């Protein structure tokens, strides 16, 4: 079979043409980047674990009626997804103070927030994904008021569901990032959850010890990054198909 056409390469994933129109293949790489690309490493097995974790979370969200781009997992590193037009906004939902919130507002790390806080960042590598308000988003036409309302209510629903699911396996969902896409069906446009949900874009702390089991292990040089991601997968009841030796996954794609 001919090699599939590559459409886009991001920091942690590659998108290939899908088997049918309106589909894409999302390939999970082992590359990790942080601090706007200044820090880079390869974490063996990360892509395989994230593919499984994201599949699991997208399927659970689908079960509660959240529309997602996920169709099915194809193999260790690839999943079939629906092609969407990505809304150029990164939506961050926060339950506990960490990361940029701590730096920006001087709130003590680890403090539970009075309520879930939703923030919007404009997707732009050159600008380093700046924080923006609904005013910027609507004035510059990146999204509309009705679409932002839908993004907000879906994000809060996703947060409630995931926070409950993670607490059930002894993990605090500190914060996470979501991306949404537009899907055209006939004349109608529908908003669906896109991208991935994995320890690359969630902060997950152990309930008892506050041990970080997410990308902060990489950002802060805490070591054992792959083991942290693996522990999240284990607690969710997801294990690599053929044990840890399998984590590297296939080197080639068709
Ligand atoms: N996040 C992400 N991609 C980004 C920025 C943030 O996935 O480009 C996630 C990050 O992993 C964390 C949450 O969004 O779970 C909040 O990140 P924060 O604003 O604290 O930024 P950071 O500390 O990552 O600079």
Record keyword descriptors for this entry:
seven-stranded antiparallel sheet; single chain; 254 residues; alpha+beta; binds uridine-5'-diphosphate; Phosphorylase Kinase, domain 1; 14 strands; 2 domains; D-amino Acid Aminotransferase, Chain A, domain 1
Structure report:
With 254 residues, the chain is α+β, with helices and mostly antiparallel strands. It folds into two domains: 6-84 and 222-235, Phosphorylase Kinase, domain 1, CATH 3.30.200; 85-206, D-amino Acid Aminotransferase, Chain A, domain 1 (2-Layer Sandwich). It is 27% helix and 32% strand. The protein has helices at residues 46-63, 99-105, 134-139, 145-167, 216-219, 225-235, and strands at residues 6-9, 13-17, 23-28, 31-34, 39-42, 70-73, 78-82, 85-86, 89-96, 112-122, 131-132, 171-185, 188-194, 202-206. Strands 8, 9, 10, 11, 12, 13 and 14 form a seven-stranded antiparallel beta sheet that branches. A five-stranded antiparallel beta sheet has the order 1-2-3-7-6. α1 (46-63) runs parallel beside α6 (225-235). The protein is globular and about 50 Å long. The chain binds uridine-5'-diphosphate (UDP). Residues 90, 92, 98-101, 129, 175-177, 201-203, 215 line the site of uridine-5'-diphosphate.
Write down how many β-strands occur, each being a DSSP E stretch of 2 or more residues: 14
Biggest pleated sheet: 7 strands, antiparallel
CATH topology label of the largest domain:
D-amino Acid Aminotransferase, Chain A, domain 1
CATH top level label of the largest domain: Alpha Beta
CATH hierarchy: architecture of the largest domain? 2-Layer Sandwich
Rounded to an integer, what's the Rg over CA atoms? 18 Å
Structural class by helix and strand composition: alpha+beta
How many helices?
6
Q: What is the first-to-last residue Cα distance?
A: 6 Å
């Amino acid at each position: 079979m001919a090699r599939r056409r590559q459409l886009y390469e991001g920091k942690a994933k590659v998108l290939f043409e899908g088997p049918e129109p309106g589909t894409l293949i999302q390939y999970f790489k082992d590359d990790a980047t942080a601090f706007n690309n200044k820090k880079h490493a390869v974490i063996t097995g990360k892509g395989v674990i994230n593919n499984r974790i994201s599949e699991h979370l997208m399927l659970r969200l689908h079960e509660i009626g959240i529309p997602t781009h996920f169709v099915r997992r194809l193999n260790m590193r690839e999943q079939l997804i629906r092609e969407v037009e990505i809304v150029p906004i990164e939506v961050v939902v926060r339950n506990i103070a960490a990361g940029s919130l701590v730096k920006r507002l001087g709130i003590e790390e680890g403090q539970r927030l009075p309520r879930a806080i939703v923030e919007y960042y404009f997707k732009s590598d050159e600008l380093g994904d700046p924080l923006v308000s609904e005013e910027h988003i609507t004035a510059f036409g990146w999204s509309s008021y009705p679409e932002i309302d839908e993004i907000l209510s879906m994000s809060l629903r996703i947060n409630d569901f995931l926070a409950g699911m993670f607490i059930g396996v002894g993990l605090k969902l500190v914060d996470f990032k979501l991306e949404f896409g537009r899907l055209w069906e006939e004349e109608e446009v529908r908003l669906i959850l896109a991208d991935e949900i994995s320890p690359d874009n969630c902060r997950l702390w152990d309930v008892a010890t506050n041990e970080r089991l997410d990308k902060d292990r990489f950002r802060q040089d805490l070591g054992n990054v792959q083991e942290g991601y693996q522990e999240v997968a284990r607690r969710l009841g997801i294990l690599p198909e053929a044990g840890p030796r399998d984590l590297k996954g296939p080197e080639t794609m068709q």
